[in-house]
Amino acid sequence: MTTAASPPLMPARDTSGAHALVDHKLVTSYFVASFVYYIIALLAGGLYSMQFLQHYPFPGAELFSPGRIRMLHTNGMAYGFIANAFLGGLHWAVPRLTLRPVLSAKLSWFIFIAWQGIVLGTVGGLLTGQAQAVEWGETPVWIDPVAVLGLTLVGANFLASVFRMRSSMYVSVWYFIAALPWTLLTYTMGNFFVEYWIGGTASGAIIGLFIHDLVGLFVTPIGWGLMYYFVPIILKKPIWSHGLSLVGFWGLAFFYPLNGIHHFLYTPIPMFLQHGAIVATIAVEFVVTTVIINFFMTLRGSGDALRRNLPIRWFYVGMVFYFTTCLQCAFQVTLTFQKIIHFSDWVVGHAHLVMFGVFGFWIMGMFTYLFPRLVGATRWYSDKLNAWHFWLSAIGMLIMFFDLVIAGLVQGFLWKDLAIWEESLRASMPFWMIRSWSGLGIIVAQFLFGWNMYKTATDRSLRAA
Amino acid sequence: MFESKSGILAIGGVGFFVFAYIVMGALPWTIYKDQPEKSILEVASEGIPHEFVDLAERFPAQFKEHFGEVSYESFAAALELGRDIYVGEACWHCHSQFIRPVSREDIRWGPIAHAREYNNELQRPVLFGTRRVGPDLSREAGRRSNDWHIAHFYEPTNVVAASVMPAYPWFFDEADVPNKRGMAIIAYVQWLGSWLDEYPYYEEAPKAPKLDDDASSTEVADHGHDREQEEI
After folding, report:
1. Are residues A143 and A215 in the same domain?
2. Could you give the CA distance from residue A306 to residue A317 in angstroms, rounded to a whole number?
3. A458, A371 contact by CB (below 8 A)
4. CB contact under 8 A, B126 and A207
5. Residue A175: inside a domain, yes or no?
6. For residue B178, what is the DSSP state?
7. d(CA A450, CA A447)
8. A45-70 mean pLDDT
9. What is the pTM of this model?
């Protein structure tokens, strides 16, 4: 096991007053909130997986019913973990990129508190059975207006910095400019249109757009924006090709929103739209390839960083997973693959590789890079724990991915072969067992990281003189 | 334009999104506009399944207390509550409600899903589902008795040994007496597919193919499904 021994950190370099623009306390608060929800959502996932082994620890307890816990797992990850981490990341990156403060420091703190209220409200609503029938958008309907208001304020807060900046824009800023309205529009579309105006088959099309846009137009662009920001800074060199990053951005902006219906192939949604969504999805894979090429050409000549720089390793392993998951998607979206893998654990494996293997990894890289700087420590409490965090997460992720993908094939073929339903459950049991164990590995890894964060923040001997 | 703030905001952030919404969201909506959305009462008025009446006859006191008399109105109320429970308990995360034209699903469950089956208020938002841990439910009505559902909701593994479905004791007053929620979810599930004339009863067929015998296709033909199947 390679321990990425980090040299003592320099305090974040204060070259142009950027230091004063970033509210370190706010970023830290976002990261801590994110990490807390992360642990809760991970435990919810682990708990839910035990239902599949017929060993659920709280059978018959209404508030901890596995169905509700499943929604806590997915929504906790999306709105608690990823959204908080990204808001923290934006509060770090946007003022530095624009050299302008956000609209208002008070507003920033108000948004922080309001967002935690939204997430807690969602948790409470889901556990008391008030879910809305939109996947990834199960937030109870009474929270939706508050969340939309919150996202509007988030947009105004950051776009104020962007529109006040004078210099020419760096790639990251394009992604942020687009992602802020995208997130707002996506959330509004997915939570209001299908609840109040559009029902039936047509609402399936909208829900498909929502599921996909939430990942593709909120999580993905902010994730890539942060990658374009952190990778060159850590490697201390510019991104390989500005032109290629233009292709990546505009390709994503055009093709990604057209993908949604691929979540409901072979439904009564008109077939020509299904075909359109499939073509657009395969196009995304080509766009993704340009972005991946750009980042790996940037890494060229600095490959050693993968070994000695842990944040870079998190980022690039995440990118490899990103390419894998997009390549997988280009195949699974075809009608041929859909016959077998739709409704199966294949899709669950895919979703975990995207949300944890890619964005979870990027966020962990970002935490690893920023956390000691944020709390004023000179280095991490333990590099060894950080290495364990990485390797347990990566191995757990890989096992879970292959396990679920193979399980999906087994299930799909059993269904197609008209085996009685229970046979598909019995055949899945060993895979579900492995899934739970790999998940446990991932959870343990995050606890090690949590302990490391706690010690790094509290150990006085790590403080800068 | 492609590297200016307002260009990115207007074209990328708003323009492409709206374009995609029009093509992929508004277009299907206009296509189905000729199928107006039925209210829950209209749906209920299309016919009350026998199973709902059966609940009223078997638990007269409780039924009267929760839903009153058997009527279109009380059936609509039961369907609405049942649907809310179906959503709130995340049933739709492990059960689908659409039959695909592939993977021999019409043999297992019955007629392929049609858009007109979803043009009602109970399908707003639509409950296509996303994962099949358990079987599809859109052709479940009358497939099994109320007794089966009562026993199954109370403790699924008592009925289906390999089941990984959670138990729902909070649907019950006592072990075999469903409460309001229990009756509503059973009424809802027994309604799903009741609008169809018939569908196969595949899994209970006398010679349901086992995993270890390799003759599934011939056995299927035995049950009269001799139409040509799409090969995968």
Report:
1. no
2. 9
3. no
4. yes
5. no
6. E
7. 5
8. 96
9. 0.92
